[in-house]
Amino acid sequence: MSNLPNCPKCNSEYTYEDGSLFVCPECAHEWNLESGNENSEDTKIIKDANGNILNDGDTVTVIKDLKVKGSSSSIKIGTKVKNIRLVDGDHDIDCKIDGFGAMSLKSEFVKKI
């Protein structure tokens, strides 16, 4: 029997090689040993306009006037947004903005303070 590693997610011993990847038939997890960090697939790194890594709970400022769909007003440049939450999707920041309420923003239009 070969010396293949157990699955990092479910610890199954029934893993197999598929090209350069290891695959778990029980939970369908795929990983690469050269990556070093098995959880790198699960966590997406979200960066601001300057390339700084964003985390949940960070405070950011808006770097451009943003039109709000369905509203006649816009979010002005320099607006401070506290306690952001990172989510998957095109608009990857969920937050509350004073005067607007709950919003989703794109990380490319904010910078970390």
From TrEMBL:
Gene3D superfamilies: 2.20.25.10, SH3 Domains (2.30.30.40)
UniProt xrefs under InterPro entries: YjdM, YjdM_C, YjdM_N
The keyword Transport belongs to this UniProt entry's keyword annotation: no
Domain of life: Bacteria
Annotated ranges, domain Protein YjdM N-terminal: 4-32
GO molecular function: hydrolase activity
Keyword Nucleotide-binding found: no
Keywords recorded for this protein, A-Z: Hydrolase
Protein YjdM C-terminal domain location: 46-112
Similarity remark: Belongs to the YjdM family.
Name of the featured protein: Protein YjdM
UniProt source species: Clostridium frigidicarnis
